[in-house]
Amino acid sequence: MLKLVSPYIKLYRYYWQRILLGMIMVITALSASIFLLSLSGWFLSATAFVGVAGLYTFNYMLPAAGVRGAAILRTVARYFDRLINHDTTFRILAYLRTKAFKHLLPLSADQMQHFQKADLLNAFIADIDHLDHLYLRLFAPILGSLSITLFIYCAVNYFDHTVALIITLFLLATILTMPLLFYYAGKRLGENIAQFKSQYRQLLVSYLQGQAELTLFNAKQAFRQQLTDTESQWLTLQKKQSNLLSLASAVIILIVGIMTLLIIGLVSNGIANYDPPVIALLIFIGLSSTEILAPIPNAFLFLGQVFASAKRMNHLLAQQPSITYGNINQTFTDDKCTIIFNEVTFSYPNQPLSVFNDINIRIHSGEHVALIGQTGCGKSTFLNLITRSWQPNKGSITINNIDITHFDEYSLRNMMAVIPQVIHIFNDTLRNNLLIGNPNANDEQLIAVLKKVELGKLLTAEHGLDLWIGEDGRTLSGGERRRIGIARALLHESPLILMDEPTESLDSLTEQQILAIIANNYAGKTLIMVTHRLNEHALFDRILLLRNQTLTEIKP
Ligand SMILES: Nc1ncnc2c1ncn2[C@@H]1O[C@H](COP(=O)(O)OP(=O)(O)OP(=O)(O)O)[C@@H](O)[C@H]1O
What we know:
Elements: H1 2-10, H2 16-50, H3 61-104, H4 109-112, H5 117-130, H6 132-157, H7 161-209, H8 211-216, H9 220-268, H10 276-287, H11 289-293, H12 295-301, H13 303-317, E1 339-346, E2 356-363, E3 368-372, H14 379-386, E4 394-399, E5 402-403, H15 409-415, E6 416-419, E7 428-429, H16 430-435, H17 443-452, E8 468-469, H18 478-492, E9 496-500, H19 508-521, E10 526-530, E11 542-547, E12 550-554
Parallel strand pairs: 3-10, 3-11, 6-9, 9-10
Antiparallel strand pairs: 1-2, 1-4, 4-5, 7-8, 11-12
Helix pairs in contact: 2-3, 2-6, 2-10, 5-7, 5-13, 6-7, 6-12, 7-9, 7-12, 7-13, 9-10, 17-18, 18-19
């Protein structure tokens, strides 16, 4: 089990100074608390015993100052304990989130398809959050209570060895046995809660993403019911966990009660001849142990959840990118781009049929090629092999006689502009949506390109390039989205352009306009366009038909 969380524990070494400071604050707050309670007990009984006679002889000032000092120290130490320990946890969580994200980015499409979007959301939010229990709820309270036990032993031993031994034995036995007991009692619950939480998130994401379909098909109610059922099962488990937590607190109070009774029995039956205020002091020290023991069951009850989350995170972090890049850093500025497929065979994992079988094709520099074929024959896959979203099982692909696996990722991305089937519009300004194509483009270039793709009308006097588009801004029509995609590709200024059905589902006028934009702007560049319709034959030098896992050329 420790192996599961050891990668996260190892992270603590980077934050050891903060952790040390946090621990000092935990120990100070606990010590001040115990000192406050026992001194108050002693002070009250001492004043009661001296009575009115002690009005002029008893030193009220010193213990009163001690009580006030301990109260102030406890408040200040608690404040800094929360501040430092939570800050440390947030830093660790931020580090973990960044690490997980960096780990995820280079994974191939093949690897990513094993994770649902909601799974990833879970990993980033819930799983990483659960890991904060490790330090905040486990290590800090346990280390704090062990140190305080030692401190109590030394302090009580000054008055009475037997009482010191009893308190220490009770505390140690509780600190060592209760966690195990409540870990096993809460393990199953914790794992199930983590699972239901994750299931609920997945359902919720699907529900929100599929709102339109669910509404149109009147299926909202049934889906909502699934969500409600999952939620109520999750809440039932949480209720059980709360009950277990209450039981744990009750057991702690019972243990402290028994220990205090034992101390009362011992000190009042005269194991030594103590002043009554000292008796009160020892009893109050016993009572204050509740403060030390209270967080212990809490720590272990949630451990099942922590382990379940650690397991999922470990699985995510164990993924190694299956597609790696070479180190050739080359940008082709002269628009020369010849692509060759050599004996390329490809099939998707776990699929019985291959998509391509020993494909050989040379696409010359500056050629405009249409790629046609029936639905599902592999046209998008052909482009995905060039972008290296997928890797051929056999054979190779070269660009300008260099195997594409030898380019570094920056060069590869730089040499091709891709217009995918679905253009993603970010919830951002028009400017930032265009800058994705070329982050160095200036406003004049952006405006010029917008006019080229006939989106000049978006440039209102009021907002200009700062117009907010996407979910919270001006919504774009299908044709306008495609034009944004083309604008990005134009800004990218690469020698190779890959287009996946750029005119799909557009009316014929818009289609003609978009094809004209492509013809006017991509002369001299290598262009491969996946299409179902061949309305604009003049645009293409060659037409390739993909059928039965092979490519054949047909006359335009
Ligand atoms: N990630 C994947 N895992 C398994 N099979 C896949 C995957 N992606 C696509 N396929 C399958 O591979 C085949 C080729 O898919 P591809 O998307 O390349 O076809 P297409 O010709 O572009 O289709 P369309 O014209 O409908 O866009 C299809 O049978 C598809 O179901």
